[in-house]
């Protein structure tokens, strides 16, 4: 048996001659526990928002998108893209043309992003599930020579079209060739128009709801002069396929000519911001944990003073100075471990209560949000991170003070 650990364990749980030492030790454990609990809860709330945003993107973004590494478009019949389409793991492949344009409806106008898609767009994504008012509807974006558009819900509000508009929605895009004639500026633009399908979509992300119009790829190619070209090849894998393995295979095929992006990489800016926010919150709470760990120093200082007679006895029995210092070192570490375990358990309990009952709401205007209560998602990696962080901070916090006090007071 480890002699210093055995003595430290007895000191931790035994009654001290001064009752205040027990109280201070309990306060030390609670201080570390509260900081650990705050870390668990805060990281889980950030995970909840992260997963919530990811669920929105899932309804619009493909599993994998292949885009040109240089320029906006690439030939749709590129042999490399054909090879990608023919991979055995691919279930749905769709070409897309996407670029900016101007939309005008009556006396209102807005800069928009026109996303032209194939007829299998709803098979590729969950687009039908985010339509309003008829969620789940199969959309047909063109019929004969008629072209239809589905705008984002906030774009429909800003243009005043609503879900159903009666007149044409005029779309303007710059001419790709020729020079601007200032005497006839209208000739510098290609004009086309869209009819209403009676639907709008709501991804609940401003990037899409405010700017995007989904229409047929034939309309987008005619508008932007991109016949035979594509902006991206969007893919859905067969169930059970390993996303990372397929992605690596695709990268080997495309080389440096194309980029292969999963959903997180397609929204890299959004997730980077969320990751930075989570990191900043973790750093600030770690500083609070460091402050809380200084309570352990006070507890150990009083314990060393209280056990001076015991130390003399241990020395007479042959204990070395290193062993005696290790006793109080173990004492501080056990306080850190106890606080970490208690804090993590309390944090997990609070997370379960929030997930189950939604106790903490988003305020009086919670009905205006996608969710009424703060979303929470517990990740095992975060629990391990919190436990290791508490141990490291707690152990470092007691190392120097114990060595110093041992030399001065023992």
Task: Give short descriptive properties of this protein.
410 residues; two-stranded antiparallel sheet; alpha+beta; 14 strands; 13 helices; six-stranded mixed beta barrel
Write a short abstract of this structure:
This protein is α+β, with helices and mostly antiparallel strands. It has helices spanning 3-13, 19-58, 79-85, 121-124, 153-159, 206-209, 217-224, 243-254, 263-266, 268-306, 308-316, 321-357, 380-409, and strands at residues 64-68, 74-75, 90-105, 108-117, 131-132, 142-143, 146-151, 169-174, 189-196, 200-201, 212-216, 229-230, 232-237, 258-262. α2 packs antiparallel against α10 (268-306), α10 (268-306) crosses α12 (321-357) and α10 runs parallel beside α13 (380-409).
Structure description:
There is one protein chain. With 410 residues, this protein is of the alpha+beta class. 52% of the residues lie in helices and 19% in strands. It is built from 13 helices and 14 strands. It has helices at residues 3-13, 19-58, 79-85, 121-124, 153-159, 206-209, 217-224, 243-254, 263-266, 268-306, 308-316, 321-357, 380-409, and strands spanning 64-68, 74-75, 90-105, 108-117, 131-132, 142-143, 146-151, 169-174, 189-196, 200-201, 212-216, 229-230, 232-237, 258-262. A six-stranded mixed beta barrel has the order 3-4-11-7-9-8. The chain has a two-stranded antiparallel ribbon with strand order 2-12.
